[in-house]
Amino acid sequence: MACIENGTLQAYLDDALTRDEKKVVMQHLETCSSCREELEELQALESEIEFSFQEPDVDIDVDAAWRSFENKIQGKEMNNNTIVIQNSEKRPKPKGVLKLTTKTKRFIASGVAAATIFGSLAFPQVQVAADQFLSMFRVNQVEMVKLTQEDMNEVDRWLSREEEGTYELKGLGEIGISERTTDFNSYSEQSRFNRVQDAEEAGYQVPEIDSLMFESLNIDPGYTMSFNLDVTKANNLLTQFGVEQQFDEALDGKTFSLQVGESNNFDFKRGENQINYSKIDAPTFTVPEGTSVEELKNNLLELPFVPYNVKRQIQQIQSIEETLPLPYIENEGEKVEELTIAGNKGYMMSSDQVATIMWQEGEHIHVVDSYTVHGQKGIEKSRLTDQELKSIANELAQ
């Protein structure tokens, strides 16, 4: 196999490849010293860039910064079509929702993805919105500065570690992870099994599917992700974004949470085709007693950075306490089909590149998908046909 292009290596570092594409890259890196050296150079360059944007290690008076920030905002009539940035240039404010990367434009179903959805709905009313629409006054530099993407990435990195603990949101609240279902995270060796016997000895059942060969099992642990906001400050910031809906004051200092279900992620192979199957304990969303779930749902829908198609899916939920949204983000050339899998309502998303089927049975969510993997010399592995994937889904549901 020829050496991997730099763009593909960078996508590998950015976690922007599919599971199958990652495997192809990893297998190549095992035997190609030239590509390993190139990858190390890219990693070193990325570390240099990240270091350049790190904030000075100083204590910040958050309340003073907030007051200064509000005074500056209230002392000016801000143009709704501009943002404040460090070099004082004016650029148009994004209208509508932010564009998502390619890897997010698919069904969002796994426990980790579910946590990410509600993490983006509940926490980044400060971090994401400030990153995209406003600048925040920083006391130690006495200037208006634009929050960097690194500020956002830091939260993502903390969440991805899946470690129990609390992350302080700089005076605006906190996010916590607790009640993890395993004593390991999804990145540890304990979470991966390459033989059926090893998986079954560890207590995990591997489904048998005609003509499919088991390749691996990866466990994503379940856990509770909790949020505790300073509602007054969060609502002030939302008002400055022009958002009419506000978080209920009754939520101030109280906790609402998402129970992320444990996910068993299987890789199968049939000839040149790769098939991924995930079985996830259905997650649940809980709020403090006396809080209107419907009101909270509506407030989340009003956040300016929640994509329209995700909002549309949430709006269709009758009871957010019992049902987690499984959003589908439409892409050009993709189609959605409602279907029945072993008597259960399900959905299929398909395009030339990917086909995904999702259904819920009892307290478990099931997702099966197949991707087209592109190599440097054209298509190396094509995805299964829609009918083939439907057949596998029905067999899994038996």
**Strand line-up across the major sheet:** 5-6-9-10-15-14-13-12
Number of domains: 2
Q: Could you name the ranges where pLDDT drops below 50 across 5 or more consecutive residues? A: 48-60, 72-148, 316-321
The H-and-E topology, N to C, reads as HHHHHHEEHEEEHEEHEEEEHHEEEEEEH
Distinct helical segment count: 12
Could you tell me the mean pLDDT? 65
Give the overall form: globular
Assembly state of the chains shown: single chain
What is the strand content?
Answer: 15-25%
User: Into which percent range does the helicity of residues fall?
Assistant: 25-40%
Report the C-alpha radius of gyration, rounded. Answer: 23 Å
Overall number of strands: 17
Largest sheet geometry: 8 strands, antiparallel
Main structural class: alpha+beta
Q: How far is it from the N-terminal to the C-terminal residue, by CA?
A: 40 Å
Pfam families: zf-HC2
Family: Belongs to the zinc-associated anti-sigma factor (ZAS) superfamily. Anti-sigma-W factor family.
Domain Putative zinc-finger: 9-36
Protein name: Anti-sigma-W factor RsiW
Key terms for this structure?
five-stranded antiparallel beta sheet, 398 residues, single chain, alpha+beta, 33% helix
How do you describe this structure in short?
Helices cover 33% and strands 24% of the residues. By secondary structure, it is α+β, with helices and mostly antiparallel strands. The strands form four sheets. It has an eight-stranded antiparallel beta sheet with strand order 5-6-9-10-15-14-13-12.
